[in-house]
Amino acid sequence: MRTLKGEVWALIVYKRTGMSVMQNIVVLTTLKMAKRHAYEAQFKLKAISDTEEHGNRAAAREFKINESMVRKWRKLENELRQVKKTQLSFRRHKARWLELEERLKQWIIEQRTSGRSVSTVTIRLKAVTLAEEMKIEHFQGGPSWCFRFMKRCHFSIRTRTMVAQQLPADYNEKLAIFRSYCSKHIADKHIQPSHITNMDEVPLTFDIPVSAIRTTGHEKSSFTVVLGCHANGQKLPPMVIFKRKTLPKEKFPAGVIIKANEKGWMDEEMMKEWLREVYVRRPGGFFHASPSLLICDSMRAHLTADVKKQVKQMNCELAVIPGGLTKELQPLDIGVNRPFKVRLRAAWERWMTDGDHSFTKSGRQRRASYATICEWIVDAWANMSAGTVVRAFAKAGIISEEPHGTESDSDSEESEPGMFDGDLAQLFNSETEDEDFDGFD
């Protein structure tokens, strides 16, 4: 006998039956080691069907189960017919706020019927708004509640498919020519990976009203983040171009260059300022001692006569990616911009759901400050690993192979960091990872 409890049971049976203690011990040990069985929904439905013809007791004998289980399953027949055939049990908790969840469910159905996308964040924000309207106290609408709510309503997250860039008919030939040009120039000038640079603009907006959920009223306020990185994994500081006539009078974090113009977009003057203030910070860039290669797309601001002249003066060669081939040849587009925007999205979600907010007299929530957004940009860019950057250059065919010993991120880097853990992350990651993020709603 392995436990004191087992010995007590054995003595009780011994007194009642007169059997030997050893016989009772063997019987009880066998009973204790018996495992509980979990039955699939299709098995339970078969048992229920049998009861209709032969009754509960006969069905229990036929399927070798307890009669009480048959009675329980018959009460759950409607639910069993709605779940997967392999469903084992019903362990979910009942909803605590039935009316709130019913109203929220109808709102989600209306949004999807209208063709509007609904994310888990908008669901949580709408739930909090409904709770305030219904005067429900202590309702937080956290990620785990959202996860359970979606399971109760049988909602799933739909990933948004992106429209692929149309490749030109002779794209294979153009790919080969561009890569050959870069390889020849790198070999002839003995350009090191630390002097092979790619730059690109990432357009963002303060608000993207994807649904009827609240916004901060800045849907048309756009700005641009200019990113630059080297083939050895090093990164240049980001430059942010805000859409305004003057620079914001705020205290900005270190590690970011702040600019402003009327369009909030890259033009010839902004490109020249990027060369003077950002590109010059590459290794040895101040004295232009080492030959360099600057890779960029065919945007007009990159190709003006004054820009080309300034690039030449910096002992640098400009490699312009042919139109329509940035997704194949631009390292930032291939493997950096997307995880960067995912990190921005995570920062925005944390601020939107947990941050301290101020409101106008009309009750509209104020947008995040310029300085706050720049903090998100600095943090997101700093957390992009060297391995991610190097892999992007290798995939673009700019460098022959990924150097050994380079820090490498797992595939999870492109997932949404810092928001959810464990099983919840599997649900919420799919929403963000597979859709573009172009701003802060």
UniProtKB/TrEMBL annotation:
Keyword terms, alphabetized: DNA-binding
Biased composition range(s): Acidic residues: 431-441
Top-rank taxon, per record: Eukaryota
SMART domains attached to this UniProt entry: CENPB
Domain HTH CENPB-type, chain residue ranges per copy: 88-159
Protein name per UniProt: HTH CENPB-type domain-containing protein
GO molecular function: sequence-specific DNA binding
One Pfam family hit: BrkDBD
Renumbered residue ranges of the record's region Disordered: 400-441
One term under GO cellular component: nucleus
Species annotation: Oreochromis niloticus (Nile tilapia)
Entry-linked Gene3D superfamilies: Homeodomain-like (1.10.10.60)
